[in-house]
Specification:
alpha+beta; Thiol Ester Dehydrase, Chain A; five-stranded antiparallel sheet; two-stranded parallel ribbon
């Protein structure tokens, strides 16, 4: 039996939502957490369409807010499968806001969600492979593979326990940083 592969276009998903006053912070800008929630939603929809299964968020990479989103703007989030492993998918997301009265569109951020597919018993399951149909598909697949590899390195760094260093090594590690160490 041959392995199933799908075109990334079959699962591409766009969600558009009006930014309302209850989404705003005290400065009148939309909370980053609202945008993250919408990104998670579109990543789930895209990953579920590709895998045909329930999906969970494993990691979020590269979230940077490039431009503030205002109340009254329409935010569109477009997600696509960029890379697949055995049980996980890297979903690329592009977020844009549209000011309806002026027609001005801003790219507010792009990021990547790693999503894992699960069966009804909560066990990880294999996801379909990707059919690379265009040069852009190939570039995105290569970028996704690189993101996965760098994510593994970053997770290992985050788990690195600095307690293995002695006090002098820890102080030296912080040298030339914006901190004042006053440990007795």
């Amino acid at each position: 039996m041959s392995e199933v592969h799908k075109s990334p276009r079959l699962s591409e998903t766009t969600i558009t939502e009006l930014m309302i006053p209850s989404y705003a912070n005290f400065g009148g800008k939309v909370h980053g957490g609202i945008l993250l929630s919408l990104m998670d939603k579109v990543a789930y929809a895209c990953a579920s369409k590709h895998s045909g299964a329930y999906c969970v968020t494993v990691a979020v990479e590269g979230v940077e807010f490039l431009s503030p989103v205002e109340v009254g703007e329409l935010v569109s989030l477009t997600a696509g499968v960029h890379f697949v492993g055995n049980t996980t998918m890297i979903i690329g997301i592009r977020v844009e806001s549209l000011q309806p009265r002026t027609g001005i569109v801003k790219h507010t951020n792009s990021c990547y969600f790693t999503m894992a597919a699960k069966d009804d018993q909560g066990q990880l399951i294999q996801v379909p492979g990707l059919i690379i149909e265009t040069k852009d598909d190939l570039i995105q697949f290569c970028e996704g593979k690189s993101i996965r590899e760098n994510s593994k390195i970053n997770r290992a760094l985050l788990k690195n326990d600095m307690q293995h260093l002695n006090l002098n090594e820890q102080i030296q590690f912080c040298e030339n940083e914006r901190c004042l160490i006053s440990i007795q």
